[in-house]
Amino acid sequence: MLGWFRRKIDRLVIRDRSFKFLFDEDKSGEVVSLDCETTGFDPWVDDVISVAAIRIKGNRILTREAFRAVIRPEARMRVESMKVHRLLKSDVETGRSMEDVFPELLRFIGGRPILGYWIDFDMSMLDKYALQYLGIRLPNPRIEVSRLYYERKYTGAPQGTEIDLRFNAIRDDLKLPPINQHDAFEDALLAAEMYVILRDMKDRNIRIPRRRAAGAP
User: Core-most of 51, 63, 161, 178, by most CB within 10 Å?
Assistant: First the structure.
């Protein structure tokens, strides 16, 4: 109820009326896999420096139509973040401004659901810009890949079951090849592959085998 009320209010108060399409019912049947690399891990202090978005239609991952951008940040690059994504200041200083990139990204996404791994973090980073430019948070539904994986593997697991929701653990369990992790496009692509596999497993009522709890017979 609260979500419905908030969408209704946000639709009325959005600053740029040309983006009201974000609230339109999506009839494409598509989902968008999204990933951001950032200057750090605080959504209200740090900036996005790289973003990739890939549409998924049925079981097809539309990589040829993917959205990719390198962004010149205003926030300083944090060392701990650079160790993760391995992008240096020199890699992003020729990037485009978020003011230019953000409208293009929103038009690419439209009203489609957005999926990813740790998607709440990516969305909180994008909400920072949505509040700045539009005065609202993004209304798109979210799909968390690790939640889909948990449902296929750990639902009904007995007490003491070892639960591992790490990105690489999901990748290995689904027998997907290693990638250049912490690259926005590669991470978005892998999340898309996970989604397609997990959705197919759900449709066919297939569960992922799990380790028995310690001491279990």
Answer: 51
Report the predicted TM-score, pTM, of the whole model to 2 decimal places: 0.90
Token readout for 53 is 């978005």
Residue from 46, 22, 45, 28 nearest 36 by CA: 46
| Of 186, 196, 200, 171, the residue nearest 60 (C-alpha) | 196
Q: Is 185 helix (H, G, I), strand (E, B) or coil?
A: helix
Strands 60-61 and 114-116: unpaired
Q: Give the length of the chain.
A: 217
Q: Record the tokens describing residue 139, joined without a space.
A: 């209304």
The SS3 assignment for 141 reads coil
Closest CA to 64 of 177, 189, 179, 176: 189
Instruction: List the beta strands (DSSP E) in the chain.
Output: 30-38, 48-57, 60-61, 67-70, 114-116, 142-144
CATH topology of domain 13-203: Nucleotidyltransferase; domain 5 (3.30.420)
Tens digits of residue pLDDT in 102-161: 999 999 999 999 999 999 999 999 999 999 999 999 999 999 999 999 999 999 999 888
Calpha distance 167→171 (Å, rounded): 6
Q: Where are the domains of the chain?
A: 13-203
Residue with tokens 């998607």, as numbered in its chain: 119
- Sign for the CA dihedral angle at 20, 139, 42, 168 comes to negative
On whether the CB atoms of residues 14 and 134 are closer than 8 A, the answer is yes
Interatomic CA distance for residues 156 and 40, integer angstroms: 36
- Tell how far CA 84 is from the center of its chain: 17
